[in-house]
Amino acid sequence: MKIALVISCKMRFGGAERRLVRVLNEAGKRHEVFFLVRGCSRAFLDESLSLANCDVSHISRIIAVEDGSRIRGSLKALRRLRGLDVDVVHVYGASRFNAALTAWAHAVGKRVLFSMVDCVTFYDSMGFIEEKTSASLLSGRLLDFILRRVDVLDVLCPEQLSFYSQKVRRGCLVGSTPGTFTDLEAYRPQPKERLFVFIAARLNKQKNPQLMVDAVKMCQDALRASGYKVLICGCGWEEERIRGQIEDLRLDDIVTMPGYVSPREVLPKAEVLCALQKGTNYPSQTIAEAVASGCFVIATDVGETRRMLDPSFSSLVDPFAAELSRAMESYILLAEDQKHRCFADARGYAERHFSIAPSREYFLGLYESCQPGAR
């Protein structure tokens, strides 16, 4: 069986990309798999894979397609995909290219597996997102077009399964990703530094970096008195505005913004991860990587976040600056032996719960359902 994962990589990898590349590599132990990446050079792609700590040793072929122009780049990517003659194409994201790819795949008899990894559409439907833009409206229409044509749908969050099951055509197989996972060898605790870390590939409003800044402003005296520093990692969208705030608020002695960083370079030495998404933090790769690295986790109590944390090494807070600030100060005041117990409890939890095995078997089942005669 031949499988192709097709993604866009104009920016560095986030959690969704890390998760799906690791799944593809596992599938490569049983099937012939290809990784086709649009919008970047091979050098940029290789560097992105390295920063994301993604093993690609079982992927048969990696292809980078630079855009040139949107239309020429899309046509080139489709030609390369046609040449691979795969049985199933795995994509995610509501884009013009993925809409065209889905239509093309059906025309030539290929199956499409679509991973629904963006929670924005779901939360918009629930009335949690007030601001409507022309881009978001277009994205919604493109998503509806794609969902009506896919053969298999993978939904990231179980709470959204019923919602998306109603949007696909009859006969589409729908499944829900079984929790999260990470590389337990790559992410291990190291000697800890007094660091609170907020980390995202893309600093957009959904990731909520503003909440981190507002909380730090409130507890800055406690941070300075105890020798703790704060890292806000990521790039794009809110980055420059947040940098300006840190400077204006005179927090730059305790807050650093290093841009996009490899989670592996930061999390094993950090004491605390702050996961602050607005909709849900589940099933965050960053949380899984932090827990495997022995970090204490402070997370917003939204969506299904509780599914991947335990009170022995975490604190759930309402998404308000005062709540986050109090949780940060409470952690600072813990005795050192209590903190070390939290680090050990986190690592133990990761070893028990964050194996890739359930996700590997789940995705293999979805891929193999696309074989002729399988359904």
TrEMBL record:
Residues 190-337 form the Glycosyl transferase family domain. It holds the Pfam family Glycos_transf_1. It comes from the Bacteria. Gene3D superfamilies: Glycogen Phosphorylase B. This is Glycosyltransferase.
